[in-house]
Design a protein that fits this description.
179 residues; 80% helix
């Protein structure tokens, strides 16, 4: 049962799964971190309230997060074809695995945990918006952001196994084909 071909298939599947998971998590944070910050900043009680931007981001995040992953994977096949050039394989799977709205909501949650008194203190000392974001909000919520990054990584890893069931490759594909 554990011959060289099987071991090599599992090793290759593991690397493909890690590739999909790590790249999509990175891309999710590239898109989701600014979205989460914008949600907090533009919220009605945020540092720069803006109802229009907040409502647009909030609706996008809520809609995309409420769609089950397998359905989302199939729904955005046309977008995947536009970005990657094909709709199957590990690289194509990165597009739906990039869980930016999921990560944005987790970032928002982490930033909302920051004590408002610390933000007020920074404002009273004359800190500008970017200083408050980078040196106060992100610094104070560092632990929560790291915990949420771990959760996001685990969730995206699970999603990559589901994507393997529909042509994404990796360990999910091996599990479907060989049991």
């Amino acid at each position: 049962m554990w011959d060289n071909a099987t071991i090599m298939m599992l090793v290759e599947g593991t690397f493909v799964t890690l590739y999909m998971t790590l790249v999509s998590t990175f891309m999710g944070y590239v898109l989701g971190l600014p979205m989460g910050i914008a949600l907090v900043i533009t919220a009605p009680k945020g540092l720069r309230p803006n109802k229009i931007i907040y409502k647009i981001l909030d609706v996008i995040v809520n809609i995309v997060r409420s769609i089950p992953f397998l359905i989302l994977l199939i729904m955005i096949i046309p977008l995947t074809r536009i970005i990657v050039g094909k709709s199957y394989g590990p690289t194509a799977t990165i597009v739906p695995l990039t869980a930016a709205p999921f990560i944005a909501r987790m970032v928002e949650s982490s930033l909302l945990e920051v004590d408002h008194g610390v933000i007020e203190a920074a404002q009273s000392m004359g800190a500008n918006l970017w200083t408050i974001i980078w040196k106060v909000m992100l610094a104070e919520s560092r632990t929560s952001l790291l915990v949420n990054a771990t959760i996001a990584l685990g969730t995206i890893l699970g999603y990559s196994a589901m994507a393997g069931a529909v042509g994404g490759g990796g360990l999910g594909d091996i599990a479907i084909r060989y049991g």
